[in-house]
Amino acid sequence: MDVIVVGAGPTGLTAAGDLARSGRSVAVLERWPHPNPASRAFATMARTLEVLDSRALADDLLANGTRTPSVNLFAGARLDLSHLRSRYPFGFVTPQTNVDSALGRYAAAQGATILRGLEVVAVEQDADGVRVTARPKDDPDPLDQREFTARYLVAADGAHSTVRRLLGQDFPGRAVLSSVVLADVRLTDGPTDPGLTLGSTPDCFGFLAPYGHDGWFRSMTWDRHHQVPDSAPVDADEIVTVLDRAMGRDVGVAEVGWHSRFHCEERQVRRYRAGRVFFAGDAAHVHSPMGGQGMNTGIQDAANLAWKLDAVLGGAPDAVLDTYHDERHPIGKRVLRQSGLMMRAVTLRPRAARAVRDRVAPLVLRRPRVRDAIAGSFAGTSLRYGAGSLVGTRATEVPLAGDRLTVVQRRPGFVLMREAGRRPVPCAEALGVAQAERTDDGPALLVRPDGYVAWAGSLDDAGWVTAYEQWTGAAREVAPC
After folding, report:
1. Which pairs with CB-CB distance under 8 Å and at least 24 residues apart come from 135-142?
2. Cβ-contact 464, 447 below 8 angstroms
3. How many other CB atoms are there within 10 angstroms of residue 458's CB atom?
4. Which of 28, 124, 282, 361 has its CA 20 to 30 A from that of 374?
5. CA–CA separation, 148 vs 115, rounded Å?
6. Which of 59, 115, 120, 122 has its CA nearest to residue 92?
């Protein structure tokens, strides 16, 4: 087998589907026998929707949720998402179960084997591969154990990652907020603004995201004076009381559905790579839920990692796999920082500090440059790898003759974007590199399978071939250019 993925959440299923789509043999081991019917995540951001679109998943998903153009913060401050440079200039609210289902169908359709009810109990690796021992969940009988071997392993098994523990990997950080309650609530008098709405006082906050049907919202609440263990039951009155206090009015909770109490931490594994094992999603980083970054960051981790595993399995140098940590660890660190700053801004207690926040935030967020920088960071559209050139930037919005990039990339692999008016390049076809023509006056671009620029320049030289060789190991002699 080429790759074992541990964890059948959105991160693991993205990685498994992408690898299988590229022709790799992949098995997903998931400890729970059935998909989790509960949804912690609910916000899908613009960059993640672009990733899903390049797998032909976005349109169907968008039919079952709500598009929100803004995030309404404290004191009238509003983070406007409608100016994002994306096909998806909004936040999209839908239960994580819908995203999980779409990615599960994708992974299965591409040929990934998904094995549920198997928990990993041992992981060993050597210079040639990884050996995983798994058994039926809660079954101590060693006769029921199964062994799986593969070239590589992707640990996408969540914040309490078994793989991370078995390999003795540190997960430094700390708890930052306790006794947070998520719930699905039906309101008779919800916010009239279609955006995500936050309300707060010095002692509590409440957050509402519209599901877009029958008055149902996802709520998140926290009360400074009601700090109890995660195992403490959640009473409907607790949710109603905190929401009303945070919003400053009776929001009219008519019904409370699914609910869960949890605490949040800020942690990040030191290295995303441990030999032949790679950590992704919550197994690599956890943070405050403020900003809805968790599921989105995990899916984008997987999109970055899977094509690199495919490339190395196909003959690329092993150093390509080191770039997964080099590129995604700084992104994870940035997500921890920005979600943490948002959480601390919401939970400020001193009156003077809150007064400054309430006076400054609305003014700052009205400035287009600041607004777009913050919105792009949370939406993932302004994140990049490296600095100082077009290389490492997202190519999704480059105008093309014919299909948009995310449609072209439904066939996995690199894409060569030619300058406007330039004829197709024969050796690109021989190498199996898809081609497209720009309609603006920009340079030619070699675009990686995850949608980021690997090279920019003129097709009058062969720089793009050199870049392609560096990433894939493809021999120039195969298709002289």
Report:
1. 137/31, 137/32, 137/33
2. no
3. 11
4. 282
5. 12
6. 59
Contact status, residue 429 vs residue 419, Cβ threshold 8 Å: no
Pairing of strands 26-30, 43-44: unpaired
Structurally, at CATH architecture level, domain 174-266 sits in 2-Layer Sandwich (3.30)
pLDDT string in tens for the chain (481-residue length)? 999 999 999 999 999 999 999 999 999 999 999 887 777 888 999 999 999 999 999 999 999 899 999 888 877 788 899 999 999 999 999 999 999 999 999 999 999 999 999 999 999 999 999 999 999 988 777 778 999 999 999 999 999 999 999 999 999 999 999 999 999 999 987 666 667 889 999 999 999 998 877 889 999 999 999 999 999 999 999 999 999 999 999 999 999 999 999 999 999 999 999 999 999 999 999 998 887 789 999 999 999 999 999 999 999 999 999 999 999 999 999 999 998 888 888 888 898 988 999 899 889 899 999 999 999 999 999 999 998 789 999 999 999 999 999 999 999 999 999 999 999 998 898 888 999 999 999 999 999 999 999 999 999 888 999 999 999 998 666 566 6
**Domain 400-478 adopts which CATH fold?**
Glutaredoxin (3.40.30)
Q: Is 350 exposed, middle or buried (0-12, 13-18, 19+ CB in 10 A)?
A: exposed
State residue 74's pLDDT score. 78
Region(s) of the chain under CATH 3.40.30.120: 400-478
Q: Please choose, from the candidates 306, 316, 312, 318, the residue with its C-alpha nearest in 3D space to the C-alpha of residue 474.
A: 316
Token pair for 83: 């100016």
Q: Please name which of 199, 367, 346 lies closest in space to residue 264, comparing C-alpha atoms.
A: 346
User: Torsions phi, psi of 313, nearest 5?
Assistant: -60, -25
- 8 A C-beta contact, residue 50 and residue 451: yes
Q: Delimit the CATH 3.30.70.2450 region(s) of the chain.
A: 174-266
Phi and psi angles of residue 391, each rounded to the nearest 5 degrees, phi first: -60, 130
Annotation: CATH topology of 3-42+95-171+269-347: FAD/NAD(P)-binding domain (3.50.50)
Contact by Cβ (8 Å): 415, 432: no
Instruction: Record the tokens describing residue 189, joined without a space.
Output: 């008098």
- To which residue do tokens 């003077």 refer? 352
Sign (positive or negative) of CA dihedral 376, 267, 341, 296: positive
Residue 290: phi and psi, rounded to 5, are -60, 125
Spatial contact of 234 and 181, defined as CB atoms under 8 Å apart: yes
Q: Helices 319-346 & 368-379, crossing angle to 10 degrees?
A: 120
Location of each CATH 3.50.50.60 domain in the chain: 3-42+95-171+269-347
